[in-house]
Write a sequence for this structure.
């Protein structure tokens, strides 16, 4: 899927009329679903690789998700981690970069 024409997700707001006082007349503009779905697919594939091979995915595979890091938020990351069933070893960095820790080796 080519995402070169899709802009990264931003925290833009669009003023709209609202009858609900808790929203204060502002709603969030949705991010492109095609890009988010691609990131989700790549993320899940990388997590399965990590669990199967017990080592972080190669940098070449990681570049796929790093170039799309603007499309994934922390909430997405946590939800997708739960969907895959991975508890530890995956990190969401401050700038949105997803990283994998070295697989822990049990002591002898």
């Amino acid at each position: 899927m080519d995402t070169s024409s899709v802009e990264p997700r931003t925290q833009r707001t669009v003023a709209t009329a609202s009858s609900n006082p808790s929203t204060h007349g502002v709603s969030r503009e949705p991010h492109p679903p095609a890009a988010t779905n691609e990131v989700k697919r790549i993320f899940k594939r990388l997590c399965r690789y990590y669990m199967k091979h017990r080592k972080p995915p190669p940098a070449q595979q990681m570049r796929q998700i790093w170039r799309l890091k603007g499309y994934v938020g922390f909430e997405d990351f946590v939800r997708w981690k739960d969907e895959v069933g991975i508890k530890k070893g995956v990190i969401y960095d401050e700038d949105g970069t997803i990283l994998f820790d070295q697989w822990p080796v049990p002591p002898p």
